[in-house]
Amino acid sequence: xxxxxxxxxxxxxYCCLNSSGVGEALYGTATQASVWLLIEYxxxxxxxxxxxxxxxxxxxxxxARWTGSNPEARLQLIRRxxxxxxxxITVFLALPVQDHPIVHRWILDxxxxxxxxxxxxxxxxxxxxxxxxxxxxFLTCTNGRRDRCCNKFGLPVYSNLSALHPENTxxxxxxxxxxxxxxxxxxxxxxxxxxxxxxxxGEIVRTYQAGSIVLEKFRGRVCLPEPAQAAEYFLRDKxxxxxxxxxxxxxxxxxxxxxxxxxxxxxxxxxxxxxxLHAEPAGFKTFMNCTDEHGKEIDRxxxxxxxxxxxxxxx
Length: 315
Prior knowledge:
315 residues; four-stranded antiparallel beta sheet; 6 helices
């Protein structure tokens, strides 16, 4: 059935299977945000999870003001299914910046204690203190009320991974990109993966803990804009370089519409990489949600070239 039909009207249609079937690329699709606030909420999640939650109104308004004044901030609800009942509330603030990614953690008794946390101060990546959390976090979107793909494909991934890493694995609300379910986000570096199946999850986490990236499932690093995410993919694919910290993003230049030059470097080898790419129509339509009545035309990133420059040794 063609992608322009009303496939999304059927209860058996999954937008992630359509995306995979038409060959939509994963790279350059990660949700961009450099500050992630993760609040434990074990109750039922609606499509508008925070809005419809039982979190006190004053706290919701406070969080809305904070996210509204911080365009790089994103808020997620999280939970761990099957965990023992607890009156405590875990809150994380993940800062997946390139040079020094960190995660803060607080254990609260009540949601209104969020009003006492200085999120602005904690969002400074240079801040250190007792709230720093030394472990990795693995988040899988399972919010089926937002999109059926997330529950259908996300929940098995969460179940598999939580059996391996019960203290570090969380269900989460919408990560962006239902059509790439199951989505898996690894902190502190903020590496987002898509089309993850249960058999993949353990390997992705093992590879991440060893300091590397599984490139074929990689949507991008959430601290980078989409063209830079795509450029990183192309560069890693060319160099066969998968170490998380091997490449440092320097800057991005847009000489004309739908064209970019992205510059990465490798401090150890003293190489600088100039990646030229452009966006063009993908040639197919994709469904953003399972309930969409019509597909949407999208662009895809294409590589134009990679130039490698070497810095001379200092005298």
